[in-house]
C-alpha cells in the first residue's frame, strides 16, 4: 500500500497495532511550515485520524513561543506517548522534557527538512505518518548536548549558518521574492572564501583546524544516496565531527552534492573524526551555531557530549 492510499478509515480498521495504550498527547506547532496556511484545520485532521483509529488523543495547538511550557504541562500528566507535530526544532523542544523518562516521543514531520522524522522512517504524508507511529516500535536513542542543552540531529558552524539565516528571512515571502533571494544566496555561497580557526580537544588530544564549516552529528551519517542525509544508527554512542577545509564555497557545495549521492569519503577536504565528546575552542567569546536547524549564539568554549540511549522514541517498522 502506498503512502497516499493509507486513510483514517484504514487506521480504524485494526490493521495498525497501537504503540502504547492510554491517552496520546499531540503538540502541534502552529508555526510549522505545513501548519501555516490552516493550523486549526491541520490539528483537527490529526485529532480526527487518531479518533478514527480508536485512540484517545488530546490535540494541543500551540504558538511557537509557548511550546516549552505546553510540553512541560503535557509531560507532567505522564502519558505513554507525546507526538511532536512540527519540524526538528519542535522535536528538540519536546525531547528536552522527555529525556531520561519512559514517555515516548513520536514525530509528525511538518517542518522544512524533518531530519529526525526521516531517520525514524516517518513518511511525509500525514495519515501515513500517523499510521507509522501507531504501528511503530519503541527504541532508545542517544542525545547530544551542547553546553548542557540537548540536540537530536546536529550542530553546525560556519557557512551553513548564512544559508539558514537567509532561508529564515525569506520564509513566507512572495514566491518571486523567495526565488530571487535564493539565487542571491546561491551566488554568495559559491563565491564564499571566509574560513575560521578553531581548536578541537578530544580523547586523542588537541588539534587545530581552519574550516569553512564544521558539523557535529549525533551518530554518523550513512554514505549512501539519500536526501537529506540519513542516520540508520541512533544509539552508537558517538559524536561525529565533519570538518570542511575547502577554500571556496563552490567546492563545499560540490562536496555536499557528492555526499547526498553517498560519496564523500574520497574528498580530501573533508575530515571525519569520531569521539564520545569534544570541546571546540575559539578566539571569540561567543559564536553563532545551528542546533537542530535553529540558529543560536553560544558562549565558548563549545562543549559537546553524548548521553547514551537517553530518549525513548517511536521508529517506523521496516
Summary tags:
alpha+beta; 318 residues; 6-stranded antiparallel β-sheet
Structure description:
- The chain has 318 residues and is an alpha+beta fold.
- Helices cover 29% and strands 33% of the residues.
- The protein is built from 9 helices and 16 strands.
- Helix 7 (159-170) packs antiparallel against helix 8 (175-191) and helix 8 packs across helix 9 (249-260).
- The longest helix is centred in the middle third of the chain and has 17 residues, at 175-191.
- The model is unreliable at 1-18 (pLDDT under 50).
Label the overall shape: globular
* End-to-end distance: 14 Å
Strand order of the largest sheet: 6-5-16-13-8-9
Number of helices: 9
**Main pleated sheet:** 6 strands, antiparallel
Helix proportion: 25-40%
The H/E string reads HEHEHEHEHHEEEHHEEEEHEEEEE
Give the rounded overall mean pLDDT: 88
Give the strand tally: 16
Alpha-carbon Rg, integer: 20 Å
Please state the structural category.
alpha+beta
Poorly predicted runs are 1-18
Strand content: 25-35%
Amino acid at each position: 500500500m502506498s503512502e497516499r492510499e493509507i486513510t483514517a478509515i484504514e487506521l480504524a480498521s485494526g490493521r495498525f497495532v497501537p504503540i502504547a495504550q492510554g491517552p496520546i498527547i499531540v503538540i502541534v506547532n502552529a508555526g510549522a511550515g505545513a501548519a501555516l496556511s490552516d493550523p486549526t484545520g491541520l490539528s483537527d485532521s490529526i485529532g480526527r485520524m487518531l479518533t478514527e483509529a480508536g485512540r484517545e488523543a488530546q490535540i494541543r495547538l500551540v504558538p511557537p513561543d509557548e511550546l516549552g511550557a505546553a510540553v512541560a504541562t503535557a509531560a507532567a500528566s505522564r502519558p505513554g506517548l507525546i507526538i511532536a507535530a512540527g519540524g526538528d526544532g519542535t522535536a528538540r523542544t519536546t525531547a528536552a522534557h522527555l529525556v531520561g523518562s519512559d514517555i515516548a516521543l513520536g514525530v509528525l514531520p511538518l517542518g522544512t527538512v524533518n531530519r529526525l522524522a526521516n531517520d525514524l522512517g516517518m513518511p511525509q504524508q500525514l495519515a501515513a505518518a500517523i499510521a507509522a507511529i501507531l504501528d511503530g516500535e519503541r527504541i532508545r536513542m542517544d542525545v547530544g548536548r551542547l553546553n548542557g542543552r540537548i540536540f537530536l540531529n546536529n550542530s553546525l558552524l560556519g557557512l551553513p549558518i548564512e544559508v539558514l539565516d537567509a532561508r529564515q528571512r525569506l520564509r513566507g515571502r512572495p514566491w518571486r521574492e523567495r526565488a530571487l533571494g535564493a539565487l542571491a544566496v546561491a551566488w554568495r555561497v559559491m563565491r564564499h572564501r571566509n574560513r575560521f580557526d578553531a581548536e578541537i580537544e578530544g580523547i586523542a588530544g588537541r588539534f587545530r583546524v581552519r574550516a569553512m564549516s564544521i558539523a557535529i552529528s549525533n551518530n554518523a551519517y550513512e554514505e549512501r544516496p539519500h536526501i537529506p542525509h540519513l542516520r540508520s544508527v541512533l544509539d552508537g554512542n558517538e559524536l561525529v565531527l565533519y570538518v570542511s577545509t575547502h577554500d571556496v564555497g563552490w567546492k563545499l557545495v560540490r562536496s555536499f552534492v557528492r555526499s547526498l549521492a553517498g560519496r564523500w569519503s574520497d574528498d580530501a577536504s573533508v575530515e571525519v573524526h569520531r569521539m564520545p565528546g569534544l570541546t571546540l575552542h575559539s578566539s571569540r567569546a561567543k559564536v553563532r551555531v545551528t542546533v537542530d536547524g535553529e540558529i543560536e549564539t553560544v558562549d565558548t568554549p563549545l562543549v559537546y557530549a553524548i548521553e547514551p540511549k537517553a530518549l525513548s522514541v517511536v521508529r517506523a517498522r521496516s
